[in-house]
Amino acid sequence: MRRVLLAATSLLSLAMSGHAALAADDTAPEAPYVDDRSSAEAVIRSLYSAINRNEFARAWGYYGDTKPAKDFDSFVKGYDGTNKVEVATGAISDEGAAGSIFYNVPVAIRATDKSGGEKVFAGCYTLRQVNAQIQAAPPFDPIHIEKGALKPSTADFEEAVPPSCGDGPPPPKKDTALEQAKKAFLATYGDQCDKELLANEPETFSIKYKDKDAQPADPDKETRLFHFSCSAAAYNENSVYYMSDDVSGVRQLQFTEPEMDIRYVNNDSEGKVESMHIVGFRTTGWATNSNYDKDAHTITTFDKWRGVGDASSSGTYLFRNGDFSLVQYDVDASYDGEENPQTVVDYNTAP
Question: What SS3 string covers the chain?
Answer without folding.
Answer: CCEEEEECCCCCCHHHHCCCCCCCCCCCCCCCCCCCCCCHHHHHHHHHHHHHCCCHHHHHHCECCCCCCCCHHHHHHCCCCEEEEEEEECCCEEEEECCEEEEEEEEEEEEEECCCCEEEEEEEEEEEEECHHHCCCCCCCCCEEEEEEEEECCCCHHHCCCCCCCCCCCCCCCCHHHHHHHHHHHHHHCCCCCHHHHCCCCEEEEEEECCCCCCCCCCCEEEEEEEEEEEECCCCEEEEEEEEECCCEEEECCEEEEEEEEEEHHHCCCCCEEEEEEEEEEEECCEECCEEECCCCEEEEEEECCCCCCCEEEEEEEEECCEEEEEEEEEECCCCCCCCCEEEEECCCCC
